[in-house]
Structure formats: C-alpha cells, structure tokens
C-alpha cells in the first residue's frame, strides 16, 4: 500500500509499505476513507521534524522512526478485527481519537491527567500521525479499537474526517463554561475558528463576533452564520478594535462573555483579553510558535477576568460532536462548506500540501482520499482474502449474542439456522449498502466540488490552483520544490500558527 510520510528534514514522500497486520486481539484494521490536512501536518513538512522523530533517531515517547506516516484527522471503515473487539463490528464507519498517551505507551505509573481520562493533556502526549504510529495518510491502518468512534449512517465519511477538528472547537466551548445566550468573540477564522462558529451555535450562543483579516475566510464566517464579522486591519489599533467589538454587546457595551484566540500572536491575545466583560473568560487554542507573550495582570485582576488554555479534545467531546451532527444540531451542509477540495493520495503533495502553502488564506480544509489511490489490486485482493476473518467474526458475534444460562439453552437448531441465514443476508445487504454509499458519496462529492467551483468563480478565486507563485504567496509560508512524489520544502516559514 501507499503512505504519505515524513522521510527527512522538510521532506515528505509517498512510500510503499506492507499492509499492516493485526498483532493484538483488541486491534482492528481500518480502511481509510478521508484524512484532512491540518496546519500541523504542513508545519511538519515546512519546518520539521517537530513532532516526529529526528532523522536516524527514535521518537523519545513512541519509538517510531522516520519514515513516519502523517495525518490525524481521518475516518474509515473497519475491515478486520481482533478476537476481543466488541465495541465495533465489520463494516462500521468510524472516526479516530488520535491521542497517544500513557495507556498506549504502556507507561507506569499513569500521569495525573490519564488517571482522570484527560488523555488530551497527558504529560507524555503524542499524536497518531505526528510521531506516534497510526497516521491517516495511508490506505490501511491498524488501531486499538478503544480509539474508534462509530459514525451513524447519517454522517458521511468526508464529514466524519472533520469530527476531529470539530471536537477541538467543541472542547474549547465546553471547558470555557459558555452558557446559552452568551456572546462570544473568535479571533482568527481558520479551520478551528470556523469550527468554533458551529460549536457555539450548537451551544445556543446569543452573538458570535469574528475578527479575521482574510477576505475569503471572513466570507466563510458569514456563510456559516457569524453574527458580526470584522476586519482588524481596518482599525488603527487594538484599542479601536476593542471599542468596535464592545459597541456590539448591549446592554452594557462592556465586551463579550467568552473569547477564543485562534491566532497565536500578541495582537490576537491582546484582543481576546481586552474585549472581555466583567468576569469574562478568554480561551487560547493556538499553539504559539513564539513562546513569549506579554499579559497585563491588572487587566485580568481589575475586571476579574479569566485566561485559560484548551488542549485538543477528550473522547466525550468526540461523542457529543457525533451526536450533534446526527441530530442536526450541527447542520451537515455547513460542515461540508469547510471542505475546500478533495485530492487523492497520489497528488496530495502538489494539490494538498503545496496548495495550502501557496493559498493559505483561500483554503479551509483539503481532504485526502487514500481509497482512490492508484494500484488498488493488492488491497482489493487483500480484502477478498479477509472473508474467513469476517466469517470468524460473525461466529464470535453470534456466540456473544447467544448469552448464557437457561435462555440460551432453549434456542433450537431451526432458530440457529434462521439466525445464520439472517446474518448472511444482513452481511450481503451491508456489503450492497456500502457499495451504494460509496457510489452516492462519489456523486455528492462531485456535486459539492461543482458548488465550490461556482463559489470560487463568484468570489474571484477560481484561479486557486492555477496562479503562479508570487512574492505575496511566500509572505507566510516557504517556497517549495516538487519532484515526482517527493516534496522538499527549502525555506523556513515566518509564520506557522497551528490553528
């Protein structure tokens, strides 16, 4: 199979690897459907290794060496299972919690965070696809079943890949203590900032104010339903921006209840702190590249404001996002607006990573679809050879379902035959339905691509992948060179905030 890996300093490449094998009874083999390209993946390309191991060395926490498969925002289908897996079944569509903490590392004793099930804040935290095994830019991946979350039929697999960034936004809203009807400020309308709009709407926000310098990102914020969208470059100072935001917050016009920093700069931090009302809370989601920032303690003390961080998400956040999507609390069509394009694994470097580098302010989320990669023969035959595993799993499930005691002893041979027949029929129907799902997903993907193209045409950005790189393209990100299936980033970027 093919995997998109970090292979050296500022170098990513498509690597031929063997399809992974299940080693433990609690593991599953997942066929990856979609994997989103995150800014941290791009940062690993342009400036890495940062999270991954250094060339020639083992990762200090995970033991993984280069080449290391990237990708941590992904969904897929369960195609094989270990003998002790009970929380998912063959054919389930799932998304993945990629935290790789004490439990996964076999660390003893567990850190305080892991004893409380806050694996997002583990003292030894690593992420699958960023230094830990289990990256999603590949065709197949083996994972412990405990890190899988089942997607109901109502959630397509492309949206399933966005459950991870949505969960980051959801977690930030949850830990902030945000209440129904309150007012929020989002500084920075990148993928996480836009996801915050959807999470705040799901929490019944009264007003959602967005500050974003990029015109296309501002339009995305409006399309998603932000109440007010401001361009901070139109104000001569942070004080003027704060005054404008406060003017939008009646009845006291003293500022917002909760603010979220997705920018990771001194100016964005100043904005989220100074726009808070009495007793308000500012939340930092950005992974700052400059570790130094200035905060005036008196700004917090005099108005009893609070400043806190929000790190990733917990499993319960992912479950709540899936439930909100399933019930329509987060509208599916709005989530799909975040998908700028879908590319294959074969062209993910050129039309995925390099497109994001060249057009950072024009693109929200690019999905990679490993299932459409060339040379599928090996994988297809592999899945066909897995029929005996499906049969074994079916028998295990039937034996689990039979239970114990007098109730199970009363089952007749005719009922067993009927159950077997139903199981076989169900398996066939499920296979047929998966085929129909994949077909409908291809059609819906084409329709969304046409809709996005119409939007780009109307907004004057149809040249997204056609324009030549110029000086403004390199203002925030590095130039690149691309040869075949290998990407080499030649310069350090000047600005790499991770949300």
UniProtKB/TrEMBL annotation:
One GO cellular component, as annotated: cytoplasm
**What Gene Ontology terms for biological process does this UniProt record contain?**
butanediol biosynthetic process
- Which keywords label this protein? Metal-binding, Oxidoreductase, Zinc
- List, alphabetically, the Pfam families matched: ADH_N (PF08240), ADH_zinc_N (PF00107)
One of the entry's Gene Ontology molecular-function terms is: (R,R)-butanediol dehydrogenase activity
Q: Where is this region: Disordered?
A: 374-469
Q: Does the keyword Oxidoreductase apply?
A: yes
**Bias-annotated ranges (Acidic residues):** 376-386
Q: Which residues form the Enoyl reductase (ER) domain?
A: 8-368
Cross-referenced SUPFAM superfamilies = GroES-like (SSF50129), NAD(P)-binding Rossmann-fold domains (SSF51735)
What domain of life does the UniProt record list for this protein's source?
Answer: Eukaryota
List the SMART domains: PKS_ER
What cofactors does this protein use? Zn(2+)
Compositional bias per record (Basic and acidic residues), positions renumbered to this chain: 387-399
Residue ranges annotated as coiled coil are none
Indicate, by first and last residue, each region the UniProt record lists as having compositional bias (Low complexity). 407-424, 442-454
Family of this protein? Belongs to the zinc-containing alcohol dehydrogenase family.
Its recorded name reads: Enoyl reductase (ER) domain-containing protein
Tell me the organism.
Magnusiomyces paraingens
